[in-house]
Structures are given as C-alpha cells and as structure tokens.
Amino acid sequence: MPVKSKYDFNDLTKKLGGQKMPLCNFCGTCIGICPSGALTSDYEAGKPVFDESRCTQCSLCYLHCQGIKVDFSELDAKFKGGDKFDTYLKSYKKCFLGHSEDDQVRRKGASGGSVTRLLVYMLEKKIVDGVILPRNKPDQKWLFRPEIVTDIKTVKASSQSKYCLIPTNEILKTLKDKKGKYAIVALPCQIHSLRKLQNEGNKHAQKIEYILALICGHNMEYGATTFGMKKLKIHKEDVIDVKYREHGDWPGGLSFHLKNGERKGINFFNYHYLNAVYLPNRCRLCPDYYGNYSDISFGDSWLVRLLGRGMNERGLPKGWSSIIVRTQKGLSLIESAQKDGAMHLEEIEPAEIHESFPFNISYKLNGIFIRLKLARKKPEFIGLQKPEKLDRYFYHFIYNIVLIIGASRAFRFFLSIMPLNFNLFLIKNFKKLMGYKPNARDMVLKYNEKSNV
Ligand SMILES: Cc1cc2nc3c(=O)[nH]c(=O)nc-3n(C[C@H](O)[C@H](O)[C@H](O)COP(=O)(O)OP(=O)(O)OC[C@H]3O[C@@H](n4cnc5c(N)ncnc54)[C@H](O)[C@@H]3O)c2cc1C
Fold first, then answer.
1. Is 130 helix (H, G, I), strand (E, B) or coil?
2. Helix and strand tally (H, E) in the chain?
3. Which of 242, 272, 300, 364 is 20 to 30 A away from residue 63, measured at CA?
4. Which atom of ligand 1 is nearest to the CA of 289?
5. Level-2 CATH architecture, domain 9-70
6. How many angstroms does the Cα of residue 412 sit away from the middle of ligand 1?
7. Predicted TM-score (pTM) of this structure
8. Residue 160 pLDDT class (50, 70, 90 cuts)
9. In this model, does residue 68 exceed pLDDT 70?
C-alpha cells in the first residue's frame, strides 16, 4: 500500500517546468508505476495526462522521474556490469562489430538487424517469455506504444529505430499482471529509471531480465513526424505504418506506408537533421550516449573499413552494428547467439566504437557539461563525471543557442513554409561555418546522399 507523502504529480509538473514540462521526454515511468491509475498517456502530445481525483500522493512518480533526478553514483555503485572501464563507454565486458546472420533481418534493421535477431533468438530458445518493444497503436497507426510481443513474425515486423517519443516504461503497468521473464529495448534515459526501480526491488521491473539499449544521440518530438507528413501531403488517418529508417538505401529515411498501398518518404538527412528543431529539451540535457546501464547496447557502425564489406546488389553498404556488452548475462547471451549461427560478431576495442561517433562524443559527452552550465531548468545529476578538459567551449555554446532557436515556435513555423530540404541546407552551412570536419560517418553517408530527397 503506497504511503502518502508531500509529493504528487502537481509537484512533479512544477519541477519539470510547469504546464509545458520541458524536462519530461515521455519515458513512461510515472505512468507505468502509478498504483492508482492517475496517470495515462497522451501519445500524440508526448506527455502524461494526470487525473488528480485518482492521485493518492504516493510520490512514486516524483521519486522515479529521470527528468527530475538521476543519481549516477548510486547507479554506478549498484550496477557493476563489466570488468573493464572506458571514459565514454563506462563499465563494459567486450565490444563487437556485428550483424544478424539472417540477411532479411539485417536488411530490414536500422543497423545490422542485431537487436531484432537477438530478440528472435531469445524467443526461439525460450530464454524469455516475451520481448517488450514499440508497436503501432491499433487505432492510430502513426503512433507507437510499448507492447509485450511473443511471436517472432511480429518482432521481425517491428525492426528499425523509431525516432519519436514512446513511453516505453509505461509497460511496467502491464507487467503487474504477468509472470515470467522479459527482455526490453529501451533508450538510455528510460534505463536510468528501470535500473533504479530494479535496485529498489520493484518486482515488476525485476521481471525484465535483459535490458537492450539503443545508443542514443537524441530523440525527436512527434512534431518531426508530423512535419514529414505535412511536407508529403499525407493525412495521418491514411497512415498504416511509419518506418524511420526505410526510405532509399541504407541507412534509410522516414517512410510512410499508406492505406492505398503507396509508400512516401523523405531521405535520411532531411529527417535526421530535424533533430535541431524537434529536439526535446530533456534530450538536449542528457549525458548518457552509450546506454551505460544496459546488458548490451547497440548502435550504428560507420567505420570506413567496413565500406568494402557486405554490399547489396546496387553496390551500396549493408548495415553493421556497434555492440557494447556490459554484463556477464549479456555476454553469455550474445556469444551463444553467435555459436548457434544467429549473429555475426567481430571483437573490437572501444576506440573503434568511438571512431564511428566523433560528433556525438564531442556534442553529447563533452558538450553536455556546457549545456548544463547554461541551462536554467535542468535535472539534478548526482555523480556525473566531468572530463578533465572540456573541448570546443565556443562551438558548444553556439550550438546550444542554435538548438534553442531551432526549437522555438517561430522557427518551426518558418521551416514549415520553406522547401523540404531547406533545413538540411542550413545545417550543412552551419557546420561549414563552424569548421566541422567530415568523419567516417559522412563518408559512408555520401554513398546514400543522392539516392532520394
Ligand atoms: C531515438 C533514437 C536515437 C538513436 N541515436 C543513435 C545514435 O546517435 N547513434 C547510433 O549509433 N545509434 C543510435 N540509435 C540506434 C540505432 O538507430 C539503431 O536502433 C541501433 O543501431 C539498432 O539497430 P539494429 O539494426 O540492431 O536494430 P533493429 O533490428 O532495427 O531493431 C531495433 C529494435 O529497437 C526497437 N526500437 C526502435 N525504436 C525504439 C525506441 N524509440 N524505443 C524502444 N525501442 C525501440 C524496435 O522495435 C526493434 O525491436 C538511436 C535509436 C533511437 C530510437
């Protein structure tokens, strides 16, 4: 029985920045753990909805909100997954480059199809009773919500990254009525709350046996998807599926599947760079890139040396995953998947993981300290380790201003009346102005750039 305390959701809202709640990125934790059903999801707005009449002031929402506070020293102390340490990866056991050995899964995946293949493997081998991943809302197919999936066909159909706010931790509510063991795919911020709950002995969170993280540079508000629909003159009611990494060749752009069988899309760059406009404030203030508290973290791999390997019939590269294994449980799982022919793995050193992400290491893992310093409203991060020397102070300062202007209503309106690739034009020129040096990722993307706009 929850004990009454001084905090309720109204206090939480105030701390998150009032009505607009800029420090909420709809992770779903408050909705998932509310014992009285006072919190539900508004999927389209990307916000929890509060019914004050049902609130018992138990404080659970307040105490587990990662927009309010993350105690990294507590997480680090209780979550000692790996026996090795890297400044950026934190605790880990082994790093790999990899992909699904099932070529169809690889081609349909966001990177190497590794997450989907591993989830399928867990179901095939009955290692878990179900896997938790985002699925289209049955009545509003352009939106996503977390579901427990037990059939392999659905897991395969759910591959690819969803670059929109999904309240993954809302699933804790469903887990209350379930027995068994589950695997979840979640973003670093969502994992902060899940691990906190697991550490505290929350029995529903403890049903999650495996946490697979998606490495995360940022997420995007649902407005970015709507922007794509408007530019392509699509009505949301006509949408039966949204794929964020499908249009054109790999890495693939935003694609809408329509009721009439048509598919319309915009290329990777045109969607990807909307992050400067639809970036949730909480993502601008996030210090965890590599999903530091997962069992295994997965991201893209943009190594130039992979370019000659694994081309499709049009001579374009197939996806590879950067994989960071953090726990013994994660390592045993992925190595048995390799032994059974489900996964292709090549062990690498952390340096080759970082080589794919020079921008994100600089922007997210160094720039965060500058953004936090400049932010008036911010989460309380305890025990966050600062690098010895912060790089490119001026660049991060200017970029922070660009992100704030980008997210303003005025700029969003301006962009909505400009041609589709105007934002891409702005970002490219801004990068040039700031002396941005092309990296491995830019070289890989050059292959794809001309495929479609
Ligand atoms: C918001 C976001 C930001 C990202 N930023 C980066 C980045 O900066 N650098 C980088 O290298 N990689 C990033 N990724 C991860 C990358 O895009 C791929 O998801 C990852 O490499 C796994 O690819 P895969 O082919 O192995 O997975 P797939 O086989 O395509 O499977 C992906 C699985 O993840 C699930 N999933 C997709 N989106 C979400 C979501 N939002 N929440 C929970 N589950 C989800 C899918 O349902 C599917 O089960 C990001 C992903 C997301 C969603």
1. strand
2. 20, 17
3. 364
4. 8
5. 2-Layer Sandwich (3.30)
6. 26
7. 0.95
8. very high
9. yes
